[in-house]
Amino acid sequence: MKSINTDKAPAAIGPYSQAIKAGHLVFVSGQLPIDPSTGAFAEGGIKELTRQSLTNMKHILSEAGYKMSDVVKTTVFLTDMADFAEMNEVYAEFFSNPFPARSAVAIKTLPKDARVEIECIASEK
Questions:
Q1: Mean pLDDT of 8-15
Q2: How far apart are CA 122 and CA 71, in angstroms?
């Protein structure tokens, strides 16, 4: 296993890695919508928050030598399923056909009271 870390995404806020490369797979930890340059959540609504989470993911994948097109599975955590349509709109900007498999779940709370968190698994082609 190899730990993947980049300054272009927020540092881990606990005892975990931004991502782990194991064989041909990269497992990216859940990304909150934190702007690494400010340490604060991206400003705006769920669209801007989703965009920041996915941008963080993209930077981590890039550090590992992967692209968003290498993502095979994502999990999206939302604190309000009413945000699903707007999240999905931005999500579609980051992925193209064939789209990765995905789960989207509503949960009660997220770390730092975030509204969205997204994790993924990527594979070499």
A1: 92
A2: 4
